[in-house]
Design brief:
- A hairpin with a 2-residue loop joins strand 2 and strand 3.
- Helix 2 packs across helix 4, helix 4 packs across helix 6 and helix 4 runs parallel beside helix 8.
- Helix content is 44%, strand content 9%.
- The protein is built from 8 helices and 8 strands; from the N terminus they run ααααααββββααββββ.
Length: 279
């Protein structure tokens, strides 16, 4: 389907299918974002930015005489759309997949709860400052993202200039598709990559271990614009849930299937049920 649409894009308006609903939804979201941008333009205070849109508009004004500026309305619309659509969908899917993995791997959940009780306790909410004192929980969140490999082939990019790579010439404008699987599931960096194990991000002393192979948000200048927000959300949401609840499965944990439902553009967890039991 994607190949047909790429080769003959005019056909997409005449073909039946769920893509029509997707196109309509994106049009509605774009219309909503445009209305919000116009509202911000009408009430903009250059000295008191309220949010990302205000900051972008201020930068646009500062660079309005720069013919090569990248701060344009089109760029603003695309960026806000990325955060609004891609950010919410990928984060929610990662959270759903993460809960499924914690439901199945009860020993991991127990270790996370033990660390939470020791560092945070049960009488205050987790905060981002806690993460540096919680290496196992931090490793658990990283391992969820590594293991699920949410967007295996990344999102398409394009070469902005001619590039020489391993004796190949990649012409300017060439569409590029990179495999994040090749790094996230590299068996030299992560032994037994098909196994869910937070130990992949811990050293021999139990301290958190960074890895240059951890790039679920891609890498480079065009990596995910919402990385910092997504990482913060995942840590706080997962930690808060595990702090306050035990996860109970309706079936034997050994029968829980974590195989994704889709393995094309994105990997979606299978449907499942769980029960949150207050601790």
């Amino acid at each position: 389907m994607f190949k047909v649409c790429n080769a003959l894009p005019a056909f997409i308006d005449y073909l039946p299918g769920s893509h029509n609903r997707v196109i309509k939804n994106f049009a509605e979201i774009k219309s909503y974002i445009l209305r919000r941008v116009k509202e911000h333009q009408e009430t903009l205070d250059m000295d008191n930015p309220r949010d990302f849109i205000d900051c972008f508009l201020i930068k646009m004004e500062q660079e309005k005489h720069n013919p090569h500026t990248e701060f344009t309305i089109e760029s603003l619309m695309a960026t806000v759309s990325d955060v609004f659509v891609a950010g919410s969908e990928t984060t929610s899917t990662t959270l759903r997949y993460g809960l499924l993995l914690l439901l199945k791997h009860t020993e991991v959940t127990a270790k996370v709860q033990e660390e939470i009780d020791h560092v945070i306790g049960r009488h205050r909410r987790p905060c981002m400052q806690d993460r540096t004192r919680m290496p196992y929980t931090d490793a658990m969140v990283h391992e969820i993202q590594r293991y699920i490999n949410l967007i295996p082939n990344n999102v398409p990019h394009a070469a902005t200039c001619n590039v020489r790579f391993r004796n190949y010439i990649i012409p300017k404008g060439t569409d590029l598709v990179t495999s994040l699987t090749s790094v996230l599931h590299d068996d030299k960096e992560f032994p037994n990559p098909e196994v869910f194990d937070p130990g992949h991000f811990l050293d021999e002393n139990g301290n958190f271990k960074k890895s240059d192979y951890f790039m679920p948000f891609s890498t480079g200048k065009r990596m995910c614009v919402g990385e910092a927000l997504a990482r913060m959300e995942l840590f706080l949401l997962l930690t808060t849930i595990v702090q306050n609840f035990n996860l109970k499965s309706f079936i034997d944990t050994k029968d829980i299937d974590t195989t994704p439902m889709a393995n094309t553009f994105g990997r979606v967890p299978p449907s499942y049920q769980l029960c949150f039991i207050p601790r």
